[in-house]
Amino acid sequence: MVRITKDPEVRRNELMDAAERLFLEKGYDHTSASDIIRAVGVAQGTFYYYFKSKDEILDAVIDRYFESYAKFIEQIADDRRMDALQKLLYIVETLFSEKRGKSRPAGHRDLERKVSQHERYQQHIDEKITPIIMRIVKQGILEGIFDVEYPTETTELIVLIVEHLHDDIRLRDDRKRRKTTMKVAWSMIEKALNVPPGSIQLHS
Amino acid sequence: MVRITKDPEVRRNELMDAAERLFLEKGYDHTSASDIIRAVGVAQGTFYYYFKSKDEILDAVIDRYFESYAKFIEQIADDRRMDALQKLLYIVETLFSEKRGKSRPAGHRDLERKVSQHERYQQHIDEKITPIIMRIVKQGILEGIFDVEYPTETTELIVLIVEHLHDDIRLRDDRKRRKTTMKVAWSMIEKALNVPPGSIQLHS
Amino acid sequence: MVRITKDPEVRRNELMDAAERLFLEKGYDHTSASDIIRAVGVAQGTFYYYFKSKDEILDAVIDRYFESYAKFIEQIADDRRMDALQKLLYIVETLFSEKRGKSRPAGHRDLERKVSQHERYQQHIDEKITPIIMRIVKQGILEGIFDVEYPTETTELIVLIVEHLHDDIRLRDDRKRRKTTMKVAWSMIEKALNVPPGSIQLHS
Amino acid sequence: MVRITKDPEVRRNELMDAAERLFLEKGYDHTSASDIIRAVGVAQGTFYYYFKSKDEILDAVIDRYFESYAKFIEQIADDRRMDALQKLLYIVETLFSEKRGKSRPAGHRDLERKVSQHERYQQHIDEKITPIIMRIVKQGILEGIFDVEYPTETTELIVLIVEHLHDDIRLRDDRKRRKTTMKVAWSMIEKALNVPPGSIQLHS
DNA sequence: TATGAATGAGTTTTCATTCAT
DNA sequence: AATGAATGAAAACTCATTCAT
Prior knowledge:
Helix content of chain A: over 70%
Radius of gyration of chain A: 19 Å
Largest sheet of chain A: none
Oligomer: homotetramer
Distance between the termini of chain A: 53 Å
Number of strands of chain A: 0
């Protein structure tokens, strides 16, 4: 009725925000375009003005997420003040912590799960996230901190653990369990990298 | 037209087989009741004679799967001829191997993924699979083979790794990579259990 | 609400009848599936139970029409009691007459026009109608009644005239004009076939 | 963004050109206002600044076409250097020829067909084209070249043949067939006008 | 004159489920 | 036990048109 015009960039993001939230809450298949539309409070046509289909907004949401996720990890990888071990620990602790600001993107593996679009999601992990972690692992090897026979597979396993724990554990654990789980997980990572145990302290 | 009567149990299983296959292929949400019906070649009504809803057949499929999965792991856990380490290795190797007979159930984490019913699935893992593995881990501790500070969390992590690798890796890896990945993963498990490395040999 | 089950053949034809009528009245594009559904008084799903799409029911309607049209012309072509000229005249007069029973199918070039599916329609004419007329023309040549240099093209032209007049004229002419037009058209056909003029009488 | 201002007349014609092309290609109903807008590269609003509705631009396109068509035929009708038979032959040959410059308007019966606006189109034929041909026929009668009992109906039939052949034949015929068809058609027209056969030669 | 974001009613289509036989 | 025609609510998507700038 009342026509509210906004900067297209803003509108587009409003729609993606609502879509992201709903996809995570109810899953992609159980979220209708109308749900998103209602949430934003625009007309049916407005949605399709910005996105050709429901599928397209999902793509956009996943892309946007990985862009910010990769950026976050990249910043750490590029940080001169930390050595490789510190970097990994920082990433792990951040992804495991409950409070995440915008700079610490929320776990979207839920999204993947609800979205039944695993391929696309895994591709992003493989192409955008794993290579950055690999850089850190290789840095650690060069620095002489890590001693790894199969860097590729080890990196992939670390990413796997972190990614899955990141979401899985959080779903079912209370805080104490989470802390213990993280301790154990971190210990596994240390051992995988052949780091002398206790060479770094978990915070809190 | 032609009315074909079968043993109800047979019919029921035919429907579940078709449903399982289709859910794995296309996902639960993208499989329609009619798809299942068409695959089996019965009438619409027949489906609803056996299952109250599409949801119910999913439950039945998951239950049936976990029943056979748990049974398989249980047999190993109960096997007197292996020690705890051998049991774990046997389970890991079986789940990672390509050829699985009926006694070696196929990975259904795909199903979970496509089914967007993670909760139900995870619950089965937590309630049926993890406890059995836990028994093995505790057996190992008693046998003095394992040295674990947090058995619960460690077991959960092992299950997590095995479960996810089981599917994830298989999707994207060639054989050689798979073998290396398994080697690395097994090595992580050994270290998590504080087993002296090389105390057991990976087959092949 | 009240569920009325009918012989599928009957239902299917009910839907096609309504579709045919509406397509002719308002045109294909201005007829919605819901219009057809409402006209028949069934549920939305019933339509799609019988036809996969609006496009498919159009196909079915055109096919059905041409089947009956071709059958009608074929009967005449096969009639032993008439010579070639009588047959042509009979066809022309029938198609031009206002009252047509079921054996004298109504002009559907309107449909084509409204349907913007000329290709499909023309194909039916070319493949089903023209060959039958061609048979009659050739019969006439053998009988020595017709004298035609280019039978193929002449037949096509006759079909063209008859087909178009059939619908075009009817739309805008009053009865007297129609009669005169038919007289003139028939005279053109006679001349095209080099029939001595007046060798046969137009009725009424 | 960049605002390009043009002579309104130019803009208007750009829009009509695009509309005409698209209507002929895909049909009126399957051409969206946005298609036209995109083709020209203007904003949504610009279209509606020039035309109140999609319907109105169709009217404009048809009118523009018939204006040029009628003008072309009128010039021939007014030409003092040809007798009536020459004029008709010239028109027929032009409409049948493949290459047409701007002075030889393209067949728009396709348009009608795709536009499902037969009434409007036929009205233009009846009001603008048929009368001019009628003038030529009457001229021929006065000149003593034609001998026609029912000039009105005969003229209408000639127009009908020419109009339909013009498009129909062209769609499906190869060149040789087209030539033969034209020969046969012209022969029918000659006979309809009772012109002694061979009193004029077809070119090429 | 021109822009382009926004509208919203309408359309096609899907599909889990029911029910008379 | 089994059939399959029928249901209807809801979903995805389209598009002519408007309007604030």
